[in-house]
Design a protein that fits this description.
The chain is an alpha+beta fold. The chain has a three-stranded antiparallel sheet with strand order 1-2-5, with no helix packed on it. A three-stranded antiparallel sheet has the order 4-3-6, with no helix packed on it. The protein is elongated, with a radius of gyration of 19 Å. The model has no long low-confidence stretch (mean pLDDT about 95).
């Protein structure tokens, strides 16, 4: 009986965990990026927000030697977001670090 109870509790917890993690209020990804010049990079970030959700996203620009040369935190709108990242020197890539609900 104790084993059946433990299995039931585990099953309920597992169902809750799957449901909770599949219903994120915000999903985001980089559509494209462009290194404009030595001190500027731009990125297009696609964001999907649940109804009435607010979020904060963070971009990081990285140089060829893998050091961080710029970061930018912004509050996205639902859909396409064009974002500019100021850099201290030439970047080679822009990555989406995080996009979390507030």
């Amino acid at each position: 009986a104790l084993g059946i109870l433990a299995a039931a509790v585990f099953g309920i917890w597992l169902a809750w965990a799957v449901w909770f993690h599949s219903n994120d209020p915000v999903t985001a990804g980089i559509e494209s990026f462009d290194v404009v010049d030595e001190h500027t990079a731009t990125a297009v970030v696609q964001v999907r927000l649940a109804e009435d959700a607010e979020a904060t996203c963070k971009l990081r620009a990285t140089a060829e030697d893998k050091t961080t040369v710029g970061e930018h935190t912004f509050e996205p709108v639902d859909g396409r977001n064009e974002v500019t990242v100021r850099t201290e020197r030439l970047a080679t890539t822009v990555d989406l670090v995080s996009c979390t609900a507030n």
